[in-house]
Design brief:
single chain; mainly beta; Jelly Rolls; five-stranded antiparallel β-sheet; 14 strands
Length: 180
């Protein structure tokens, strides 16, 4: 199975970070966890992001933003945001990022939201290029092996389903899901 990709056009910098898009100039992409049980997010979130830029003159790097939000994506509280400390290469490579912030409460039923941005690296972004993130790969250490490691254990929220014509409550099974 080939890795999935998200492609972002560059822009003349210095510029505010540019959210990654599904295709160059397309719809912005973001990733969500399933709904979670109440918890506190504290510590350092680490990420392994596989990405590339189309030309070394693009001067881009990856920024990761971690936030909590309601199930529908509203009421966002940003936990933290950080850039990788290296420029993207012209072929798929790994950038490591570390994001931290003040402790943030996750209420029952909320989710974590992850956004990737293209950002300037040491020099201003140059226009007329693209940058690509590779994710959802099938093999560890290979194309698309993008992942995030959280500093705390989180549990998926599972609500009980009331069935009035049945004398019991059905609990849905919980499976660990990939973030990407």
């Amino acid at each position: 199975m080939a890795a999935s990709t998200a492609v972002r056009n560059t822009a003349a910098g210095y510029t505010a970070p540019l959210q990654w898009t599904a295709t160059a100039g397309g719809t912005a992409v973001e990733w969500y966890t399933p709904q979670l049980e109440a918890a506190t997010l504290a510590g350092i979130v680490s990420a392994n992001i596989r990405a590339a830029e189309s030309n070394a003159a693009a001067n881009g790097t990856v920024r990761l933003e971690v936030a909590t939000c309601d199930n529908d994506g509203t009421n966002v509280t940003i936990y933290g945001s950080a850039c990788a400390n290296a420029e993207l290469a012209t072929s798929e490579g790994v950038l490591s990022l570390y994001v931290s912030g003040p402790d943030v409460s996750i209420s029952q039923g909320q989710r974590l939201r992850f956004r990737l941005y293209l950002d300037d690296f040491e020099a201003a972004l140059a226009t007329s290029y693209t940058a690509t993130v590779y994710y959802n790969g099938a093999t560890a250490g290979a194309s698309g092996d993008t992942y995030i490691v959280l500093p705390v254990a989180l549990t998926q929220y599972v609500s009980a389903v009331f069935m009035p014509d049945q004398p019991y409550v059905l609990i849905q099974s919980v499976q660990r899901a990939s973030l990407f």
